[in-house]
Design brief:
The protein contains no helices and 16 strands. By secondary structure, it is mostly beta strands. It has two domains: about 5-185, Porin (Beta Barrel), CATH 2.40.160; about 195-270, Immunoglobulin-like (Sandwich). The strands form three sheets. The chain has an eight-stranded antiparallel barrel. A four-stranded antiparallel beta sheet has the order 13-12-15-16, with no helix packed on it. The radius of gyration is 25 Å and the shape is elongated.
Length: about 270
């Protein structure tokens, strides 16, 4: 059963300064090694935000409430990753891609940018304006799937200190900032293992992986052919073949592992 909890790795962590520059750690050194109880930052989050600064930004004002979707994908297999890709939804249905770096247990930060249109001298320049910003994220709660912790709640800040005008029309473009809280939309699901084998009754059998992924791609396969006297009783290939040494029927087992470190296992009797 999946239960929400505060990760042991996060207990005692310093409080987040939501509007403080100290939390925007883009230039920090290498992160400390991950604790086994530290949650993995993965999946889509519903973000509720409040604009904390809006200087000359069209359609924004301080105190404005916003709803966004942020999606995170780790760059490693299993456990917390040192690098996480954030796809950050923003106004107008636009999405930015930001590389976040793990700073310490449950804390990530990174720099991003997006371009926007500016009308100058009677024409619209699609990339006339550029906003460079910092994003910082801290995991505040976790949920367990197969005994592995995943982030289920977080707080975050967005800070655009200055917008750059790339057109010949001079003038400042303002700046903005916001703070967010986020909730995981759905806990990661594990893969489902399955396979077929041919030809029936033959000593040498070919095995075809028929597994389906859950929330993340499958990255590893572990076969046990139930033929313990064989020196080749196991395989890590996706679609292996095996020549059985012991006659009769065999209980063949396949375990698949996805990028999140979640597994699925299935056994079929072949003979």
């Amino acid at each position: 059963m999946i239960e929400s909890r505060i990760s042991r790795a996060l207990i005692g962590a310093p409080a987040l300064a939501l509007a403080g520059a100290a939390f925007l750690l883009g230039g920090a050194g290498p992160a400390a090694a991950a604790d086994p109880g530290e949650p993995r930052l993965e999946g889509s989050f519903s973000m509720s935000g409040t604009v904390t600064r809006a200087k000359n930004v069209r359609g924004e004002k301080k105190g404005q409430k916003v709803k966004r979707t942020w999606s995170f994908a780790g760059s490693c297999t299993g456990g917390p990753c040192d690098t996480v890709i954030l796809k950050r939804g923003r106004g107008g249905g636009q999405t930015d891609r930001v590389v976040l770096h793990r700073q310490s247990a449950g804390k990530y930060s990174g720099n991003g940018r997006f371009f926007f249109r500016i009308r100058c001298a009677g024409r619209v320049e699609k990339k006339g304006g550029e906003a460079r910003y910092k994003v910082a994220v801290r995991v505040t709660q976790a949920t367990d799937v197969q005994g592995k912790p995943f982030a289920s709640a977080l707080v975050a800040t967005y800070d655009n200190g200055k917008r750059i005008n790339h057109t010949q029309c001079h003038g400042g473009l303002g700046s903005d900032a916001a703070r967010y809280t986020g909730q995981l939309k759905a806990a990661p699901t594990p893969p489902t293992a399955d396979f077929t084998s041919t030809p029936s009754g033959a000593t040498t059998r070919s095995f075809t992986d028929k597994s389906s992924k859950g929330s993340a791609p499958i990255v590893a396969w572990a076969w046990d052919f139930g033929d313990p006297t064989s020196m080749d009783n196991t395989s890590s290939e996706r679609n292996p073949s095996h020549t059985f040494v012991t006659p009769g029927v065999h209980n063949v087992q396949l375990t698949v592992t996805d990028r999140n470190g979640l597994t699925g296992t299935v056994s079929h009797v072949v003979g």
